[in-house]
Write a structure and sequence with these properties.
Shape: elongated
CATH topology: Four Helix Bundle (Hemerythrin (Met), subunit A)
Number of helices: 4
Number of strands: 0
Strand content: under 5%
Protein name: TraR/DksA C4-type zinc finger protein
Largest sheet: none
CATH class: Mainly Alpha
InterPro entries: Znf_DskA_TraR, Znf_DskA_TraR_CS
Organism: Rhodococcoides kroppenstedtii
Pfam family, one: zf-dskA_traR
Number of domains: 1
Keywords: Metal-binding, Zinc, Zinc-finger
Distance between the termini: 24 Å
Helix content: 55-70%
Structural class: mainly alpha
Order of helices and strands: HHHH
Radius of gyration: 19 Å
């Protein structure tokens, strides 16, 4: 069975829209945290009531890095569509199941190779 290119492109476009929206939201959150901390003199490092501003900033920054990596992974997946290798495991050469590609459109490996980390 070969990968339907129209389905692959739609799958990737949908994932790109989600990732782009996630990046924009996280950038807004990060900006708000930084801006908010600029105007406060609170000693949040010793506040027993909750997380610190530094922790929140670091958490959002980490999620933002992940979301940007997702976009890069989707770019690479689009390249595989163009090259005719989308949906083929980069390790064993077998087909990646549609269910896996639906869940992870930028998947490079079949579930078996991913589970074995080979």
């Amino acid at each position: 069975m070969t990968v339907d290119l129209a389905v692959a492109r739609t799958r990737l476009a949908d994932a790109r829209a989600e990732a782009t929206a996630r990046v924009a939201s996280l950038e807004d959150q990060h900006r708000a945290i930084v801006e908010g901390s600029r105007w406060t003199t609170d000693d949040d490092e010793h506040d027993p009531e909750g997380s610190t501003i530094a922790f929140e900033r670091a958490a959002v920054a980490s999620m933002l890095r992940d979301a940007r990596q997702d976009l890069r992974d989707l770019d690479e997946a689009e390249g595989r569509v163009d090259a005719g290798t989308y949906g083929t495991c980069e390790k064993c050469g077998r087909e990646i199941a549609d269910a896996r590609l639906d869940a992870l459109p930028a998947a490079r490996r079949c579930i078996e190779c991913n589970a074995l980390r080979r």
